[in-house]
Queue: 3 jobs
Job 1
Amino acid sequence: MIRANTDEKWLPLYEALASNVRLSIIKLLAEQPLNIKELAAKLNLSSAIVTMHVRKLEEVGITESKMIRKNGGTHKINSLSVDWIEIAMPQKAQNSRKYQEVSIPIGHYTECEVHPTCGLSTTEKVIGQYDDPRYFLDPERVNAHILWFGKGFVEYKIPNYVLQGHSLTEIELSFEIGSEAPGVNPNWPSDISFTLNGVKLGTWTSPGDSGHGRGVFTPDWWLDDVNQYGLLKIIRVTPMGTFIDGQRMSDVTITDIPVNRNQWTFRLATADDAKHVGGLTLYGEGFGNYNQNIILRLYHE
């Protein structure tokens, strides 16, 4: 799954789709995985030309290739790595609303309690060692752009830049998140709860941990069989209740959230007593499919 929009960064994706040959390759790979020679035969093209087209599709995450033993030899087999592509069009202009926005890097949590499997990484290297919670307190953690744990919580303190005299009308939190399975597993449900200023906003069940293809922004050095991407979730706390991706999550309204003049405290957690204890993975800039940190947006009037 790829969710794109009209930003310029998605031009390579659209350019990859703007070819009759590459569209034919997608259709063929939807039927079955094939190597370059098999694709070339079906398209009546040379292997060199087909290789060029497949490379363009692979660079944007539409296809992937793996070395597979077949008929006594090793073959590079190509297959689709996404089931569908969604393009979000710009929203029709509405009456503009005033808001303050803060982007919080993944490693800037202020409190945590994590249990293996766990780890964190910058866009260049893993911090410390896998499955050792001590490294979640390492000074270099502030440079982390991805983190994961089997159970526990991370908590962020976020500055409140809304001025006194302004009245909050809506709180919006967005982030890319998924479960945390040993390796990857698309069928690995996890009940993840969200708390803002001590008030539980609700619980969302993540369906799984990556599972199919590489993250669009995940670094090239990152292993194929570990966390690749999550789902972009948007939580909105309104006067009518709390919603996640437009679906009601709880009856907590904006007036139920105590306001601290200086800061907001946001916690993401998986509890021992949850029905599905499947951990969580948080993706920040440089990882996953959305290239964003945790974003808090405060609408006011």
Job 2
Amino acid sequence: MKKFITLSMFFLTCSLFAQEEASKLSITGSVDAYYQTYLTAPDNDGATFGTAFAGKSGFALGMGNIIATYEGEKVGGVLDLVTGPRGAGATFNTDIVDGIVNQAYVYWMVSENTTLTFGRWNTFLGYEVIAPAANFNYSCSYLFSSGPFSHMGLKADFALSDDVSLMLAVTNPWDTNDISMTGEYAFGAQLGAYGQYLNLYYDSGNNGGLGFEIDYTGGFDLSDSFYLGVNAAYNDNDGAGFYGAALYPQVATSDSFSIGLRGEYFALHGDGDDLPSVFATTLTGSYTVENLIIKPEVRLDALTNQDDGMFYGNFVDSDGAPTDSLAAFTLAAIITF
């Protein structure tokens, strides 16, 4: 009987320990797909905006991702696996079938105000992110598409007060997600204050690096139903680069529907005059049914200082000839869990 009681207590202890460990582990994720047709160009002539993701016509898959998060008292880790064209584009992996590591990192809360993170995490630059469920617009901006998507390295987050934070990072160079083959490293910093963020990034610019970028990301609640997001950035790599700004006004008309506009100006700078630039306007609706988000979207990009229809994308007219504008309609569906 004593052996039976001892064995029962052992299994009970193991069961309680397993339940406690399971409670520290959470699984989340999303799946998205879309339909897209070009309003000013044939769908079969290779027309594209040239920004990241959602570049197909007809019915297309965005991505599916599963995020496993372990949260201990002072330590934890995240494994974010993605598949599909959006996941492949975000990780520069051309294989859209196999699982792809989007994020994989461990963290240690050294103190109440200091956290160290080691591994690969999505970028701190820009207003938009890789996962479509976290963006208001389904298509992406030129600013987001031109910067890094992820970083591989070590970062330290400091909570300076309830409303002020500081992050410092040393990583592999721009979008070198796995290893650095050149012995070079990049440095990043973020100062956050009252929901506004000033971001800095630097690598040598060699071997396809990004160089220097300064980025402001923030937003303001102008009323209970009206929000204005803001993003502006300047990049320089040995005298050439890009700059631009985007505004994101969004209005909630009900608990389930919002409508928002992204107006963006993006330009290249460097040697020569009249370098190409683009003004992009994207109008997006967002309707939520439980965990499903439905996003109808109309986008119009207009080039300036550019005559042949080639910038980052491929702007053609109804006859397939180069032109200075491109418009499309997109209907996306995103489920989160």
Job 3
Amino acid sequence: MLRFLTAGESHGPVLTAIVEGMVAGLPLSREYVNRQLARRQGGYGRGGRMKIEQDQADFLSGVRGGLTTGSPITLQVVNKDWANWSEIMAPGPEARLEERVVTRPRPGHADLAGAIKYNQQDIRNILERSSARETAVRVAVGTIARALLAELGIQMTGWVRRIGSVEAVLEEEQTADQLRELAGASQLLCPDGQAEAAMIREIDRARGNGDSLGGVFEIRVDHVPAGLGSHVQWDRKLDSRLAGALMSIQAIKGVEIGLGFGAAAVPGSQVHDEIFYSPEKSYYRATNRAGGIEGGISNGEPLVVRAAMKPIPTLYKPLRSVDTGSKEPFTASVERSDACAVPAACVVGEAVVAWEIAVAILEKFGGDSLRELRERVDQWRSWIRQV
């Protein structure tokens, strides 16, 4: 069973994760993980925190000589900003609890709901953990899964489809490799150059107005084996797991797979993918409106998922709120924030999608070493071609 837990606060000393169940013999380097952490910190529209932090992951266990050992993997990402918060956020009685107290909840954030749930007078005890800073270590965890998928020939491509009112337009015959190359060269992970320029202008306008913007990102996963997930129980459906993983990312408010919400607006003849057969391909579909999943099971076509991110709730032109101490109306408190973090959310999305696919692969094929797992996956792929 592949699983993980994360711990840590936005202004605490470190973010930590423990990963259990990863196969032995997986090539894994600090540099490989750090490349994904750098992608998460990039993107036009990011705020001041990214100028402080230069995220670097350290392995504290489970990796030796560049290979996983099969033992639990401990990851750590240090918060450089801890130096400015060590006295305020100290775990012992020396903590200066009277400083930087937050009593003004931000609309759209976990602030008020979390303070009520956990009976906290200082909202900082909520916002420190609910912050999207937590996604740094989740990207590190997802990158381990990404490394496993790469060893099995599974390719991940994430890109930004929309920011605010601007939507990217792609050429119909664009390949996954072309899409990955164009998105990788963009400040916004957007493969449409004209749309990217318009997105940047819209971000600049929002920032100038003290506002923020959301958007939509898309993730495509190629060469996923058919047969992952299951139809037999609600919690074993692959699309259910992917949707839950994406919705767990801070600020994500909607998820669709394949045609998604568009399927509600057209007849069934324009929704369902016709099935064909050839000796070379075995069963295949000429279209992929299902997004690679039918009945909760991967069908061998590329997985295509999209997520909608709301604008960051921390605004430099704060919305109205109520002080939880005095109960007087106030403008919501301002923490350091971004004008737009959709590209960063896309990188986090890639990480959580990679994780769920890796979990599904190990559930189906099992194995304690990379060699054993690869042999089983290759055998399955060979069998599928002759069904």
